[in-house]
Amino acid sequence: MLARVGQLALVTVDTVMTGRYAADALAAYALAQAVFMTLMLLGMGLVTGTVVLVAQADGAGRKAECGTIWRTALADALFLGAFGALLLLPGRTIFLTLGQEPELAAAAGATLRMLAIGLPGLLAFQVTSFLLEGIRRPQLPLLVMVGGNLANLLLNAVLIEGRFGLPAMGSEGAALATSLVRIGMAAALALAALRLPVARSYGLVGPAVPVLRLRRRLLALGVPVAASQGLESTAFNLLIVMAGWLGATALASFQILLNLTALVYMLTIGVATATAVRVGGAVGRGVLGEAARAAGTGLGAGLLATGIAGLLLLLLRPQLLAAYTVDPAVLALAAPVVLLLPPALLLDCAQGVLGGALRGGSDVRVPTLLYLVAFWGVQLPAAYLAAIVFGLGVAGLVLGILVGCAAATLLLGGRLLLLLRAGRLAPA
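User: That's the sequence. What structure does it adopt?
Assistant: Structure tokens below.
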């Protein structure tokens, strides 16, 4: 959980420091981050099979297989990151196509190019994190993440406002700082993994072996997860595009609310990954009763953590919003809508942990269709109707999120119960 919060803390620091620099810079950063997050989550989805296969191999006593899984997934991550970065280069054209104003499109496009630099490093870091979490050593990713956040804070202070003779880069500086940090974290975590006392027993060092069959297994798990995460993230990011239609002030306000939502959701991703590891280990050992208990425990833990975070969000609402911006118009628009976040966060947590439990049992294809129904068939239409047609603006967008997460929770929960009762969770 802490490691996932640290991952988003990079974006949160960027958002806060950019917002305090200028509201226009925050709007540009919000648009760039929306498009970047879509490709980032697609890439992360494609390599998610790493944690499932590592947990299942470790649970079945095939420790040496874990290193082969890691090296194969790491090569895939670097390739996917480089390919994705190339797709992001024509950023200005992307934003003009999405109907944004030319000036905002140019600023967001330049920021997107800076974010693209760090995509290979981000995916490589995630693969190594999946390895270490799959073998129940999550402390290393957390330690590297703490160091990365400190470095990002310092680099932001230099590059956003321009210090030591450097020009003020605004949102571009924030994006460049985060990209450099992500590359450094990927290298640091890989070296730390190779220096573990158990590195040789887990096959992290040693000769290369044929991986064609393994790559097919990774893709069989990763492609549906990437599709489901892509469907979810694209649906959320299209809400940012809708916010852009409402104006720069609404866009900046919605970015703050979405960042707060995403920050709390990192707790869910941490619990969901832990749930996938525990379910995967139980499935690898053939103990489905343990898998059911792991899924239930994960859901309870996630809801407890999210509930506490939601309560703190309400209690500290003025201070949190003031940390993001000093613009009175943005603050006035965001403040009342924060009250809608806690119920949306609880439902978002439930669907996220349920999805993790299904991944641990190698069930990834049907959930992809369920995500399509929930986020494209329910969330987007509901948000458009509430925000645009009925004129609720930013509040309507958040209501759309709430409705979409409720639909996903019901659908994924029903799927998990069906598979557990039928005894159909199995290794990949």
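The first helix runs from residue 2 to 21.
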